[in-house]
Amino acid sequence: MLIINAQVPGFSGLQQILIENDKIVEIAPSIQSPAEASETSTLVIDAEGDWISLGGIDLQINGALGLAFPDLNSDNAHQLDKICDFLWHQGIDGFLPTIVTTSIENIQRSLQIIAEANHPEILGVHLEGPFLNPQKRGAHPEEFLLPCTIETIKQVLGDYASIVKVITLAPELDPSGATIEYLKSLGITVSLGHSQSTATQAQQAFDQGASMVTHAFNAMPSLHHREPGLLGAAITNPHVYCGLIADGQHVSPIMMEILLKASEYDRGIFLVSDALSPLGLPDGRYPWDTRQIEVTNGTARLFDGTLAGTTRSLFSGVQNLVNWNLCDLGTAIALSTTAPRTAIHLPTYLYQPARLLRWSQVGQEIQMQRLTTNIAS
Predict the structure, then answer these.
(1) Are 269 and 258 in contact (CB under 8 A)?
(2) For this UniProt entry, which segments traverse the membrane (predicted)?
(3) Is 234 annotated as a binding residue?
């Protein structure tokens, strides 16, 4: 297959994309003429200037279709099939099921179910807690928070360290940095979040190997001209990636613009959905651990008003960024496709499966469709 006249995030000008054996083997302004391609390729597609991208990657998604990942058990494990299929049809190629703060028993049960599942779309697990600062716990239940030590980390991971891809922790809970070094030795990406850390503490954690920030601006001190805090340290560090929830509720569009400009638009930021279990379901009241959440216009809150997450898709953030004139469509697409891959050290484009998306824009309305129909699994 040869795709011609395509805009590709990260490339300048119109490109051609050569696909052989379902793998992307070349992207260049000119590979070969369509006439020549027709002799060696089964199909030539003219993108007519539309954007062509890899599928989305969601590094922070808490559940979907009524199932919260911390509630996984042998009775509902089959729902992972439905969730993977649901996300695939939304354009998501891979995701990290996110397990928020809960009991060690619940965490290990969920990790076991995911470890035993056979879903290539599941790239690993994101543990958001339980090593969080109580003052910045947000909707995380305080009774399950744990001290950040190597021993407690070993207790939480149990026999399932190999499937954990990202752990969110508050670095000030372990000034020595021993836990960060230990997690890095296991190949786990350390993301800072739910934290009161100063810029100095955050920079020390980055020097020790932390390389991500969980939902920038949320559950951390605000940027301040005398104490820039965790986020200030992150956006001035070229080796750190920050997750961003672009729903307009978690972060003001003005602050998103500041973040994007500080990060030069094309590095350091990736979109996440932070979607909760009612993703794919209508607004209403839903169970959430032992509590309930109220979902209104896609925003989920506890009954006391605490912001808990969203029920909006990853790509709704792409539409929002364009609607708010915060960046062009190509940049917004990159923030949800290539940037999260880079953040967890996955390859992009060349020699990757050609599960491509085609994006078109008329005015501010964005349409997305898959160029391939085969499901990843």
Answers:
(1) no
(2) none
(3) no
What is the structure's pLDDT at 138?
87
| Residue 274 bears catalytic tag | yes
- Before 287, cis peptide (omega within 30)? no
Question: And the tokens for 277?
Answer: 């279990």
Give CATH superfamily name and number for 2-53+351-370.
Urease, subunit C, domain 1 (2.30.40.10)
pLDDT tier at 375, thresholds 50, 70, 90: very low
37 is in an annotated binding site: no
- Which of 58, 274, 289, 304 is labelled catalytic? 274
Instruction: Answer yes or no: is 111 a known binding residue.
Output: no
DSSP conformation class of 188:
P
Q: pLDDT tens across 195-219, in order?
A: 999 999 999 999 999 999 999 999 9
| DSSP 8-state class, residue 279 | T
Write down the domain spans for the chain. Answer: 2-53+351-370, 55-343
Q: Domain 55-343 classified CATH 3.30.2000.10?
A: no
| Cα 339 to Cα 136: distance, rounded to the nearest angstrom | 26
The answer to whether 218 is a known ligand-binding residue is yes
CB < 8 Å & 24+ apart, contacts of 282-290: 283/311, 286/66, 288/68, 288/139, 289/68, 289/70, 289/102, 289/141, 290/141
Q: Which residues of 203-215 are buried (b: 16+ CB within 10 A; e: fewer)?
A: bbbbebbbbbbbb
pLDDT at 42: 63
Q: 376 and 95 in contact (C-beta within 8 Å)?
A: no
3-state secondary structure of 123: coil
Question: What is the tens place of the pLDDT at every residue in 39-67?
Answer: 554 689 999 999 999 999 999 999 999 99
321 carries a ligand binding annotation:
no
Q: How far apart are CA 308 and CA 285, in angstroms?
A: 13
Contacts of 116 (CB under 8 A, 6+ apart): 77
Prediction pTM value: 0.94
Give residues with Cβ within 8 angstroms of 367, minimum separation 6: 359, 360, 361
Q: Rounded CA gap, 271 and 256, in Å?
A: 11
How far, in Å, CA of 40 to CA of 155, rounded?
A: 56
